[in-house]
Amino acid sequence: MVENKQQWKAWLYLSPAILLLLVFTVWPIFNTLRMAFLNGYGNMAAMGGATFQFGIDNFLKVIEYKKFLDCLKTTAILCVATVPISTTLALLIAVALNSIKPLQKTLQTIFFLPYVTNSIAIGMVFATMFNIVGYNPAEGIADTWGIINNVIEFFGGQPISWINQGSTYTANIAVMIVYIVWNALPFKILILLGGLQSINKQYYDAAKVDGTPKARVLTRITIPLLSPMLAYVIITGFIGGFKEYSSIIGIFGEKMGPPDDAGRLNTMVGFVYDALEKDRQGLASAGALILFVIILLVTIFNNRVIKKHVHY
Known about the structure:
Blueprint: H1 2-36, H2 43-47, H3 57-64, H4 68-99, H5 104-112, H6 119-130, H7 146-154, H8 169-197, H9 201-210, H10 214-225, H11 227-241, H12 246-252, H13 268-277, H14 281-307
Protein backbone atom coordinates (compact mmCIF):
# COMPACT_ATOMS: atom_id res chain seq x y z
CA MET A 1 0.00 0.00 0.00
CA VAL A 2 2.81 2.38 0.90
CA GLU A 3 4.62 1.47 -2.33
CA ASN A 4 1.53 2.30 -4.43
CA LYS A 5 1.25 5.72 -2.76
CA GLN A 6 4.90 6.42 -3.51
CA GLN A 7 4.35 5.47 -7.18
CA TRP A 8 1.44 7.89 -7.45
CA LYS A 9 3.60 10.65 -6.00
CA ALA A 10 6.35 9.87 -8.49
CA TRP A 11 3.90 10.00 -11.44
CA LEU A 12 2.46 13.24 -10.07
CA TYR A 13 5.89 14.87 -9.93
CA LEU A 14 6.74 13.59 -13.41
CA SER A 15 3.43 14.59 -14.99
CA PRO A 16 4.47 18.17 -16.01
CA ALA A 17 7.57 16.86 -17.81
CA ILE A 18 5.63 14.00 -19.40
CA LEU A 19 2.92 16.41 -20.60
CA LEU A 20 5.53 18.70 -22.18
CA LEU A 21 7.19 15.72 -23.88
CA LEU A 22 3.86 14.51 -25.26
CA VAL A 23 2.95 17.96 -26.61
CA PHE A 24 6.32 19.12 -27.94
CA THR A 25 8.07 15.82 -28.81
CA VAL A 26 5.74 12.85 -29.26
CA TRP A 27 2.95 14.68 -31.11
CA PRO A 28 5.31 16.50 -33.56
CA ILE A 29 6.96 13.17 -34.43
CA PHE A 30 3.59 11.52 -35.01
CA ASN A 31 2.36 14.51 -37.03
CA THR A 32 5.53 14.48 -39.18
CA LEU A 33 4.94 10.82 -40.02
CA ARG A 34 1.32 11.57 -40.88
CA MET A 35 2.10 14.52 -43.17
CA ALA A 36 4.94 12.70 -44.91
CA PHE A 37 2.55 10.05 -46.23
CA LEU A 38 -0.20 12.47 -47.32
CA ASN A 39 0.53 13.27 -50.97
CA GLY A 40 1.03 17.00 -51.55
CA TYR A 41 0.02 17.96 -48.03
CA GLY A 42 0.00 21.67 -47.15
CA ASN A 43 -1.46 23.40 -44.11
CA MET A 44 -3.20 26.13 -46.09
CA ALA A 45 -4.80 23.61 -48.41
CA ALA A 46 -5.83 21.44 -45.45
CA MET A 47 -7.49 24.42 -43.73
CA GLY A 48 -9.30 25.11 -47.00
CA GLY A 49 -10.92 21.70 -46.84
CA ALA A 50 -8.68 19.84 -49.29
CA THR A 51 -8.22 16.10 -48.92
CA PHE A 52 -4.99 14.21 -49.48
CA GLN A 53 -4.41 10.63 -50.51
CA PHE A 54 -2.16 8.31 -48.56
CA GLY A 55 1.00 7.46 -50.50
CA ILE A 56 4.72 7.99 -51.04
CA ASP A 57 4.59 10.82 -53.59
CA ASN A 58 6.27 13.23 -51.16
CA PHE A 59 9.29 10.95 -50.85
CA LEU A 60 9.53 10.53 -54.62
CA LYS A 61 9.40 14.31 -55.12
CA VAL A 62 12.19 14.83 -52.60
CA ILE A 63 14.42 12.28 -54.34
CA GLU A 64 13.54 13.66 -57.80
CA TYR A 65 14.25 17.25 -56.74
CA LYS A 66 17.04 18.44 -59.05
CA LYS A 67 19.12 19.88 -56.19
CA PHE A 68 18.50 17.04 -53.75
CA LEU A 69 21.88 15.43 -54.48
CA ASP A 70 23.57 18.84 -54.08
CA CYS A 71 21.99 19.23 -50.63
CA LEU A 72 23.04 15.71 -49.69
CA LYS A 73 26.58 16.23 -51.04
CA THR A 74 27.11 19.47 -49.11
CA THR A 75 25.77 17.88 -45.92
CA ALA A 76 28.01 14.83 -46.32
CA ILE A 77 31.13 16.89 -47.09
CA LEU A 78 30.66 19.15 -44.07
CA CYS A 79 30.01 16.15 -41.84
CA VAL A 80 32.85 13.89 -43.03
CA ALA A 81 35.40 16.73 -43.14
CA THR A 82 34.67 18.34 -39.78
CA VAL A 83 34.16 15.40 -37.41
CA PRO A 84 37.68 13.85 -37.69
CA ILE A 85 39.40 17.26 -37.58
CA SER A 86 37.42 18.58 -34.62
CA THR A 87 37.73 15.30 -32.67
CA THR A 88 41.52 15.14 -33.18
CA LEU A 89 42.01 18.78 -32.20
CA ALA A 90 39.71 18.40 -29.19
CA LEU A 91 41.69 15.37 -28.01
CA LEU A 92 45.04 17.17 -28.31
CA ILE A 93 43.71 20.31 -26.59
CA ALA A 94 42.09 18.27 -23.81
CA VAL A 95 45.36 16.39 -23.17
CA ALA A 96 47.25 19.70 -23.09
CA LEU A 97 44.73 21.29 -20.73
CA ASN A 98 44.84 18.29 -18.44
CA SER A 99 48.60 18.74 -18.03
CA ILE A 100 48.41 22.51 -17.36
CA LYS A 101 47.31 22.78 -13.75
CA PRO A 102 47.82 26.50 -12.86
CA LEU A 103 45.65 27.99 -15.64
CA GLN A 104 43.42 24.99 -16.29
CA LYS A 105 40.14 26.54 -15.07
CA THR A 106 40.76 29.80 -16.93
CA LEU A 107 41.62 28.04 -20.17
CA GLN A 108 38.61 25.74 -19.81
CA THR A 109 36.37 28.79 -19.56
CA ILE A 110 37.97 30.39 -22.64
CA PHE A 111 37.58 27.25 -24.73
CA PHE A 112 34.00 26.72 -23.54
CA LEU A 113 32.79 30.26 -24.40
CA PRO A 114 31.86 29.49 -28.04
CA TYR A 115 29.53 26.71 -26.83
CA VAL A 116 27.31 29.17 -24.95
CA THR A 117 27.40 31.82 -27.69
CA ASN A 118 24.65 32.05 -30.28
CA SER A 119 25.74 30.29 -33.49
CA ILE A 120 24.20 32.98 -35.70
CA ALA A 121 26.20 35.67 -33.89
CA ILE A 122 29.40 33.65 -34.26
CA GLY A 123 28.60 33.11 -37.94
CA MET A 124 28.29 36.85 -38.46
CA VAL A 125 31.72 37.36 -36.88
CA PHE A 126 33.24 34.74 -39.19
CA ALA A 127 31.48 36.34 -42.16
CA THR A 128 33.18 39.64 -41.28
CA MET A 129 36.56 37.91 -40.99
CA PHE A 130 36.26 36.29 -44.41
CA ASN A 131 34.26 39.08 -46.01
CA ILE A 132 35.60 41.44 -48.66
CA VAL A 133 34.45 44.82 -47.40
CA GLY A 134 33.67 47.36 -50.11
CA TYR A 135 34.14 44.87 -52.96
CA ASN A 136 33.40 46.24 -56.45
CA PRO A 137 32.67 43.34 -58.88
CA ALA A 138 32.92 45.57 -61.97
CA GLU A 139 36.40 46.86 -61.16
CA GLY A 140 37.57 43.85 -59.18
CA ILE A 141 38.92 45.94 -56.34
CA ALA A 142 38.18 46.19 -52.63
CA ASP A 143 38.72 48.81 -49.96
CA THR A 144 39.75 46.06 -47.58
CA TRP A 145 40.04 42.34 -48.09
CA GLY A 146 39.01 41.33 -44.57
CA ILE A 147 41.09 39.97 -41.69
CA ILE A 148 41.83 36.56 -43.22
CA ASN A 149 42.91 38.01 -46.57
CA ASN A 150 44.99 40.65 -44.80
CA VAL A 151 46.90 37.84 -43.08
CA ILE A 152 47.32 36.03 -46.42
CA GLU A 153 48.64 39.21 -48.03
CA PHE A 154 51.03 39.77 -45.11
CA PHE A 155 52.68 36.42 -45.90
CA GLY A 156 52.89 37.25 -49.60
CA GLY A 157 49.74 35.50 -50.84
CA GLN A 158 46.92 36.75 -53.00
CA PRO A 159 43.50 37.67 -51.55
CA ILE A 160 40.78 35.09 -52.06
CA SER A 161 37.07 35.70 -52.55
CA TRP A 162 35.84 33.39 -49.78
CA ILE A 163 32.13 34.17 -49.47
CA ASN A 164 31.48 37.08 -51.82
CA GLN A 165 30.33 37.25 -55.41
CA GLY A 166 32.57 35.16 -57.64
CA SER A 167 33.68 32.83 -54.86
CA THR A 168 34.00 29.12 -55.58
CA TYR A 169 32.24 26.18 -53.98
CA THR A 170 35.60 25.00 -52.58
CA ALA A 171 36.22 28.38 -50.91
CA ASN A 172 32.73 28.37 -49.39
CA ILE A 173 33.20 24.85 -48.06
CA ALA A 174 36.61 25.76 -46.61
CA VAL A 175 35.07 28.66 -44.66
CA MET A 176 32.31 26.42 -43.32
CA ILE A 177 34.77 23.70 -42.28
CA VAL A 178 36.85 26.23 -40.31
CA TYR A 179 33.76 27.62 -38.61
CA ILE A 180 32.14 24.26 -37.79
CA VAL A 181 35.39 22.82 -36.42
CA TRP A 182 35.93 25.88 -34.23
CA ASN A 183 32.32 25.82 -33.04
CA ALA A 184 32.39 22.07 -32.28
CA LEU A 185 35.58 22.12 -30.19
CA PRO A 186 34.20 23.39 -26.81
CA PHE A 187 31.72 20.57 -26.26
CA LYS A 188 34.18 17.87 -27.31
CA ILE A 189 36.98 19.33 -25.20
CA LEU A 190 34.68 19.39 -22.16
CA ILE A 191 33.67 15.73 -22.61
CA LEU A 192 37.20 14.49 -23.27
CA LEU A 193 38.72 16.54 -20.44
CA GLY A 194 36.20 15.05 -18.03
CA GLY A 195 37.16 11.58 -19.26
CA LEU A 196 40.87 12.31 -18.87
CA GLN A 197 40.41 13.44 -15.28
CA SER A 198 38.66 10.16 -14.44
CA ILE A 199 41.53 7.95 -15.67
CA ASN A 200 43.44 6.26 -12.88
CA LYS A 201 46.82 8.00 -12.45
CA GLN A 202 48.53 4.69 -11.72
CA TYR A 203 48.69 3.92 -15.45
CA TYR A 204 50.66 7.10 -16.10
CA ASP A 205 52.88 6.54 -13.06
CA ALA A 206 53.76 3.06 -14.33
CA ALA A 207 54.51 4.42 -17.80
CA LYS A 208 56.70 7.13 -16.27
CA VAL A 209 58.68 4.56 -14.30
CA ASP A 210 59.21 2.51 -17.48
CA GLY A 211 60.32 5.63 -19.38
CA THR A 212 57.57 5.28 -21.98
CA PRO A 213 57.61 8.07 -24.62
CA LYS A 214 54.72 10.54 -24.43
CA ALA A 215 53.47 9.65 -27.91
CA ARG A 216 53.22 5.99 -26.89
CA VAL A 217 51.45 6.94 -23.65
CA LEU A 218 48.89 8.82 -25.73
CA THR A 219 48.25 5.98 -28.17
CA ARG A 220 48.54 3.04 -25.75
CA ILE A 221 47.04 4.43 -22.54
CA THR A 222 45.11 7.67 -23.03
CA ILE A 223 43.21 6.88 -26.23
CA PRO A 224 42.17 3.29 -25.26
CA LEU A 225 40.99 4.41 -21.81
CA LEU A 226 39.27 7.42 -23.36
CA SER A 227 37.63 5.38 -26.13
CA PRO A 228 34.06 5.48 -24.68
CA MET A 229 34.12 9.28 -24.63
CA LEU A 230 35.74 9.40 -28.07
CA ALA A 231 33.00 7.14 -29.42
CA TYR A 232 30.37 9.43 -27.92
CA VAL A 233 31.79 12.65 -29.41
CA ILE A 234 32.30 11.00 -32.82
CA ILE A 235 28.73 9.70 -33.01
CA THR A 236 27.18 12.94 -31.75
CA GLY A 237 29.50 14.84 -34.10
CA PHE A 238 28.17 12.96 -37.12
CA ILE A 239 24.58 13.48 -35.96
CA GLY A 240 25.20 17.21 -35.51
CA GLY A 241 27.04 17.41 -38.83
CA PHE A 242 24.07 16.05 -40.75
CA LYS A 243 21.89 18.73 -39.15
CA GLU A 244 24.05 21.70 -40.20
CA TYR A 245 21.96 24.74 -41.06
CA SER A 246 22.27 27.68 -38.64
CA SER A 247 26.03 27.98 -39.17
CA ILE A 248 25.56 28.47 -42.92
CA ILE A 249 22.76 30.98 -42.30
CA GLY A 250 25.04 32.90 -39.93
CA ILE A 251 27.75 33.33 -42.57
CA PHE A 252 25.87 33.44 -45.87
CA GLY A 253 22.42 34.60 -44.78
CA GLU A 254 19.09 32.99 -45.60
CA LYS A 255 20.12 32.43 -49.25
CA MET A 256 22.81 29.99 -48.01
CA GLY A 257 25.31 31.05 -50.64
CA PRO A 258 27.13 33.96 -52.30
CA PRO A 259 24.99 36.55 -54.12
CA ASP A 260 25.64 35.14 -57.61
CA ASP A 261 24.79 31.55 -56.64
CA ALA A 262 22.19 31.62 -53.87
CA GLY A 263 21.52 28.24 -52.29
CA ARG A 264 24.93 26.83 -53.23
CA LEU A 265 25.53 25.47 -49.72
CA ASN A 266 22.00 24.30 -49.07
CA THR A 267 21.82 21.23 -46.82
CA MET A 268 19.17 18.65 -46.03
CA VAL A 269 17.88 20.74 -43.13
CA GLY A 270 17.89 23.77 -45.40
CA PHE A 271 15.79 21.84 -47.89
CA VAL A 272 13.27 21.09 -45.14
CA TYR A 273 13.03 24.77 -44.14
CA ASP A 274 12.66 25.83 -47.78
CA ALA A 275 9.73 23.45 -48.18
CA LEU A 276 8.10 24.74 -44.99
CA GLU A 277 8.34 28.34 -46.24
CA LYS A 278 6.49 27.30 -49.41
CA ASP A 279 3.67 25.68 -47.39
CA ARG A 280 4.71 22.20 -48.51
CA GLN A 281 4.65 20.48 -45.13
CA GLY A 282 4.29 17.05 -46.68
CA LEU A 283 7.48 17.51 -48.70
CA ALA A 284 9.31 18.91 -45.66
CA SER A 285 8.20 15.97 -43.51
CA ALA A 286 9.36 13.49 -46.14
CA GLY A 287 12.74 15.24 -46.34
CA ALA A 288 13.03 15.16 -42.53
CA LEU A 289 12.28 11.41 -42.46
CA ILE A 290 14.84 10.74 -45.21
CA LEU A 291 17.41 12.68 -43.18
CA PHE A 292 16.42 10.68 -40.08
CA VAL A 293 16.99 7.39 -41.92
CA ILE A 294 20.40 8.59 -43.19
CA ILE A 295 21.46 9.63 -39.67
CA LEU A 296 20.18 6.32 -38.27
CA LEU A 297 22.16 4.27 -40.80
CA VAL A 298 25.33 6.32 -40.25
CA THR A 299 24.94 5.96 -36.46
CA ILE A 300 24.46 2.19 -36.73
CA PHE A 301 27.54 1.94 -38.97
CA ASN A 302 29.59 4.05 -36.55
CA ASN A 303 28.46 1.91 -33.63
CA ARG A 304 29.50 -1.26 -35.45
CA VAL A 305 32.94 0.15 -36.33
CA ILE A 306 33.65 1.92 -33.04
CA LYS A 307 32.42 -0.97 -30.89
CA LYS A 308 35.48 -3.02 -31.86
CA HIS A 309 37.83 -0.34 -30.55
CA VAL A 310 36.03 0.79 -27.38
CA HIS A 311 37.39 -0.41 -24.02
CA TYR A 312 35.13 -0.09 -20.98
